[in-house]
């Protein structure tokens, strides 16, 4: 059996002269790329600030909305936190496992269940409010107040 060749030729796709060239495309100018970079920065700041609480950004969002609502269905909680059904289901399961929320029968509708925050949830949210304020400040630290307001207005407009 012959030894493999030292150089392996790779097939190059044929260039279609009718296709626009990628020379003008800059990934770094693409809004999705820029949003992902900004989110990655925020997520790293959040992770550092919330390391001791053990909450992820999605868990924090769901927990704070549950505490604010005092009682909420899982469906509504998903809509309030902009999470799809599969995501909110996993988030709720983890919060229940941690003893931060309970699932109870809805007294107004026996077919439905509601999520109710525990005392531990109230305490954790109260303890993390200064942290979330610091996370937001660190995320936006490079922006002036006017730029922060503009950024928020623009994000609301597209999302």
Textual characterization of the structure:
The chain has 159 residues and is mainly α. Helices cover 55% and strands 9% of the residues. The protein has six helices and two strands, in the order ααααββαα. Strands 1-2 form a two-stranded antiparallel ribbon. Helix 1 (31-49) crosses helix 5 (119-139), helix 2 (57-69) crosses helix 4 (85-97) and helix 3 packs across helix 4 (85-97). The model has no long low-confidence stretch (mean pLDDT 90).
Strand order of the largest sheet: 1-2
Helical stretch count? 6
Largest beta-sheet characterization: 2 strands, antiparallel
Question: What gross morphology would you assign?
Answer: extended
What share of residues is helical? 40-55%
Radius of gyration: 24 Å
Strand content: 5-15%
Order of helices and strands: HHHHEEHH
Structure classification: mainly alpha
Rounded average pLDDT: 90
Distance N terminus to C terminus? 61 Å
Q: Please count the beta strands (DSSP E, at least 2 residues each).
A: 2
Unreliable stretches? none
Which short descriptors sum up this protein?
159 residues, mainly alpha, 6 helices
Strand and helix map with partners:
Blueprint: H1 31-49, H2 57-69, H3 74-80, H4 85-97, E1 101-106, E2 109-117, H5 119-139, H6 145-158
Antiparallel strand pairs: 1-2
Helix pairs in contact: 1-5, 2-4, 3-4
């Amino acid at each position: 059996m012959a030894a493999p060749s030292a150089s392996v030729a790779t097939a190059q796709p044929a260039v279609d002269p009718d296709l626009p060239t990628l020379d003008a495309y800059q990934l770094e100018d693409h809004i999705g790329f820029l949003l992902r970079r900004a989110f990655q920065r925020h997520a790293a700041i959040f992770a550092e600030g919330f390391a001791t609480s053990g909450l992820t950004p999605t868990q924090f969002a769901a927990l704070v909305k549950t505490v604010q609502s005092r009682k909420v269905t899982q469906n509504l909680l998903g809509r309030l936190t902009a999470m799809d059904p599969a995501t909110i289901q996993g988030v709720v399961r983890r919060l229940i496992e941690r003893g931060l929320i309970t699932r109870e029968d809805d007294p107004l509708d026996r077919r439905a269940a509601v999520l109710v925050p525990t005392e531990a949830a109230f305490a954790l949210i109260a303890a993390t409010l200064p942290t979330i304020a610091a996370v937001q400040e660190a995320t936006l630290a490079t922006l002036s107040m006017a730029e922060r307001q503009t950024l928020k207005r623009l994000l609301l407009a597209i999302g």
